[in-house]
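Long-time lurker, finally posting.

We've been working with Facilitated trehalose transporter Tret1 isoform X1 (Bombus terrestris) and I want a structural starting point before designing mutants. I don't trust myself to interpret raw outputs, so I'm hoping someone here can both generate the structure tokens and explain anything notable. Sequence follows.
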Amino acid sequence: MASGTYIRSIIVGTYFYSIFDVSYMWFDISNHFHAVNILTLNLGIHLGWTPWLIENLENANSSLNVTIDQITWIASIPQIGDLIGGFIVFLVGNHMGRRFMLFCSLILLLFSWMMLLLYDTVLAIYTIRAVMGISAGMCFPLILIYFSEIALVNHRGMVTSSQAFSMKLGVLLMYIYSAFVPSKNTFIFPTMLVVLSGLLLLTVPETPYYLVLHKNYEEAKKSLTRLRQTFEEKEIQMIVKDTENCVAKCKWKDLFLVSNNRKVLLVVTSIVVTSQFAGNAIILAYINDIFIAFGKKSSMKLLTSCTGTIGCVSTACTMLLVDRMGRKTIFLVSVIGGGISSFIIGTCSFLLEKNYHVDVVSSIAVIGIFLFAFMTSLGQPSIMYVLTSELFAPNVRTFGAAYQSCLSTICLFIVSKMFGIVMKGIDMYVMFFVFVGFTIINVLIIAFLVPETKRKTFREIQDILGNKKSASVYVIQFRNNTSLSTE
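Top reply, 14 upvotes:
Generated this for you. Predicted structure of Facilitated trehalose transporter Tret1 isoform X1:
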């Protein structure tokens, strides 16, 4: 127990040291980076709460008598909220401001955690999960947009992928926290973290894109000065002018009417659908049930914490490698590794059904789950965020991020319902073999459709995609701390 606590302390400490030290040196936006990333940490805690909740509801001593169908709805209903939140961003993301909407999502998150005091009916749980989902659905695309609009080109992948890293850490923290804290007190730590996020967001400036869109040029200059710290007035004026040219025409219809945007929609739709149906996110919701199915109930909490730790370490590797190895390479390695581990888990589940060397098969299955956690965390969530922020043209990026969030939510909802029903009523290996099939499709899509965007400006990415109209648009781009890329 002591050694496990020591290891977890090292991982958490290393994370906070890295984001406070490395981000200060490389990103030059450290304070704002930390403030927004702590909000992402909250979302991870929300995800990590799901398996704990399901375990307690399935407990024989639970005060609520829930059915299998209700359990699957409890696991899936946040996706409905996610869809609503993403749709809200799609409608008003370019009108209300990134920071204001992040505050709104924080209020919803705080409300949902406080509602745990009413945790005595299934309806209350449905409501809590739905409100959490709305908050998450708003946060994910907004944080994605915020990071992509303030990051340096050479480190944009690292900054954007840090969103997935913080989320994984939140999952791990909730795994550990819920293992040692009484059920009635689980809301205390998340609530305190939400309040801290709100206080830190007061220090975060609005992005220059939004300010110039609303012709608030003086505030845009102040925002750029706070973000960049060392720019001369002449450079700030050039950036403001370029931003104005970029976002002057901002219509959601361009997402579907411009041929290049339709091409990006095809790419994003393909990788989101195949990735979600390859099971890269569903493990989080049913991790406890999966370990129990392999006969590991007695060591379930330790194994769950180990799984979360592995996810954190893997996502940290993505942050360090994404701007060196490239998005496409890491994505392919992650997807192929996830497919191999899904095949291992599915095979072990099949052999377990046949009572074939139960102890050995169960141990191999645990290794397969750990491998799945590492490989799927290595690139899939992070790179999907990065590609969404980079492939869409600046004038439709808000709509594109919201679309990606909504589509991902719909797919995750379907997979959550299917997995719960299949696991309880049929055989678990069926779903894992389905995951393998979608993984093969995903590999082909990434290999032939996804372009490499490493260290390329938004304009260069649009050139690669073949959109001459978008390529001629001025875009804010920073190749290093003092140089500005303009046409």
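Before you design anything, note these points.
Residues 272 and 453 are 18 Å apart (CA to CA).
DSSP finds 20 helices and no strands in the chain.
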